[in-house]
Amino acid sequence: MKTLFILSDWCYTHLTTRRMLLFLVLVIGINVLLFPALQTKMGQGAAADVLDLHIGFTKAEAMEVLTILGENGRQIYLWTELLADGIYPILYTLLFLSILSLIYKKILFPASYWRWINLVPLFILLADYLENVGIITLITTFPNFSDPVVWLTSAANQIKWGATLITSVVLLVGVGLLLFRKKPLTPLGS
Questions:
Q1: Tell me, what's the pLDDT at 190?
Q2: What is the C-alpha to C-alpha distance for residues 92 and 100, in angstroms, rounded to an integer?
Q3: Buried b (16+ CB within 10 A) or exposed e, 53-75
Q4: Which whole-number Å values give the CA distances from 18 to 22, 31, 66, 90, in the listed order?
Q5: Do residues 77 and 51 lie in contact, with contact meaning Cβ atoms separated by under 8 Å?
Q6: pLDDT top residue among 167 and 182
Q7: Is residue 64 part of a domain?
Q8: How many domains does the chain have?
Q9: Could you tell me the pLDDT band of residue 116, with boundaries at 50, 70 and 90?
């Protein structure tokens, strides 16, 4: 638990507005330039149908997506998962960590037990990497992937999207507190 507080304090100290803007530019660049180009190379229906963008999926849905992609599309998807989607979760996590740290630094006392709230995006990072490992396994074992791998990959996918929703709520609560609260929250959180 102490390690989390040390990491949280590090984020409050080192994740500045300048760094947040850098992470924002990189995340936007990847979303606007890199991912659409890769999805176009994957082929028909890839832009809307990569498993990463589903909120959960069955074995039949995974089989259908990977079949539609074809051999070339699956190879591009595999390399996208290994390279681009290996770096992307780190960038968007750093972006979320920066935003939350900048907001909650202004509304929480340094001794507040709630200071760790800026670390919520780490759950997205962990789930996204578990999902990526699962998708890589599905692609490399296609068409003979197992039910447990599909189930675990889908579960990681759903946890990722759930953690994204929770992070968004934490962000909105922080913005609300920043806009409407006159003084910082006390160390006990009141």
A1: 47
A2: 12
A3: ebeebeeeebbebbeebeeebbe
A4: 6, 20, 40, 17
A5: no
A6: 167
A7: yes
A8: 1
A9: confident
Spell out the SS3 assignment of 81-137.
HHHHHHHHHHHHHHHHHHHHHHHHHHHECCCCHHHHHHHCHHHHHHHHHHHHHHHHH
| Separation between Cα atoms, residue 3 and residue 117, nearest integer Å | 14
Q: Is residue 188 part of a domain?
A: no
179 pLDDT more than 90: no
Confirm whether 89 is domain-assigned.
yes
Distance CA 13, CA 91 (A): 18
Task: Answer yes or no: is 6 within a domain.
Answer: yes
Type of residue found at 149: V
| Predicted local distance difference test score (pLDDT) of residue 39 | 81
Which residue segment(s) compose the domain that 76 sits in? 2-180
